[in-house]
Each structure stands twice: as C-alpha cells, then as structure tokens.
Specification:
Length: about 90
C-alpha cells in the first residue's frame, strides 16, 4: 500500500494530454493535496490549482490567466504571480 503524500506538486505542462488529464488524477489518487499546473503552451495560457484530492481525481480546480489572482491555501497562504509564471511579466 502506498503512503499518502503530503507534499504539493507543481509542473510546467508539455504538449501531451497526460499533463492535463492523467497526471492530475494520479496525483489525487496518491493523496497529493495540491497540484499546480503551469500551462504556457495552450492557446489560452493558464495556471491551474487542483485541490481536494480523491479516488476519482481532484474535487476542486481553480484556473487563472496571466494577471489574475491565484492564492494557495494555508499553510502557504500566498498569492502567485500568474503573469510571471506564464512568462508574460
């Protein structure tokens, strides 16, 4: 039996479907509490924060485009600079 993860995960998306569909589900099933996907390559670049992991994936997904606020929950409690993450600052 796998140990539940308590560390958050963050990645820059590649062109493959697995970064947007397969990985989030796998991380949620492994108990990763937060998964941050930074997608600069999509037609609409965005930063997505997945939270509330479960057996079928994450229960919550927050999407922010460059310049929009995206705050990480406690214990982090910080706002991310989405423009900078997306290479637009």
């Amino acid at each position: 039996m796998a140990m539940p993860r308590t560390d958050p995960a963050a990645e820059f998306a590649e062109l493959e479907r697995r970064d947007r569909e397969v990985k989030p589900r796998a991380y949620a099933q492994s108990g990763v509490p937060l998964y941050l996907l930074i997608d600069r390559l999509d037609k609409s670049p965005a930063v997505t924060l997945f939270s509330r992991p479960g057996t079928n994936g994450y229960g919550r997904r927050q999407v922010a485009t460059a310049g929009q606020a995206l705050r990480l929950p406690k214990p982090f409690g910080i706002a991310l600079d989405t423009a900078r993450l997306l290479g637009e600052a």
